[in-house]
Fold this protein.
Amino acid sequence: MSRSSLLRCASGSLLLAASSFFASTHAADAVQEVRLYALDCGRIQVKDMGMFSDTGEYNGKSGVLSDPCFVIRHPKGVLVWDTGLGDKLAETKGGIDIPVGHMQVDVTLLDQLKAIGLTPADVSYLSFSHTHFDHTGNANEFPGATWILSKAEIAWAESKPGAFVNIDTFGDYKTAKTQMIDGDYDVFGDGSVMILKTPGHTPGHQSLELKLKKSGVVILSGDLFHQRDNYRFRRVPPFNVERADTLASIDRVNTILKNTKGRLVVQHDANDFKSLPKFPKYLD
Ligand SMILES: [Zn+2]
């Protein structure tokens, strides 16, 4: 190899190294508009869906809940909303049995982040709709993010409210940087990504409202609704902490959807999940 081609090679690989360094450190702020990515963070087969309506419509019927995580990329940073069942479960091919049925993770959250050029260190903010285990599974993967947490939800979770809350799955909230909130919260300060206070399922339950340039208003339900029919028919699960609060939250979200001609995504509804652009495609 001649001296000049050697130099070309060396400068080429330097350039390559510099560009991949740039890509890995600045991937998080590379977008111009807000994007919503829906990631597959597992699914739960439920033997008796009766637990999702206290008026009996689902009694004895089986069903499947999708369990997505969401990545919201904003020019000013990255928000992860809900973290699924936990990547650890992917190590058990075919999933595991649980008292209500069976749960399974086919692909890890971290691998999906990698597919869009992100590492946990690129995630600026982490927030949950609520602290049930199927939303907190991968929380501790993000110790460097600012955790936006409902005061009421954390106080409730710390009171050991039962088997659906496993505080260890999000134990890093004790050491991470936190932003404690007790109402609506504007994540990036421009109104495009709003956490909405929607209590009832749990005391500090929240939903997420996005204002996307092409797609308009999109609301991620959290567990305000578990199935599309819970939205259609105002069905309330018997294990919600407060029925009246749930109905008030449903009224609020329904009115916002009507006023904004918004789109609702019922996170646990498998058809709603399927209707979103297939990852790594996104809604913008
Ligand atoms: Zn859930």
The chain has two domains: 1-30, 33-275. Residues 1-30 form one domain. Confidence is low (pLDDT under 50) at residues 1-27.
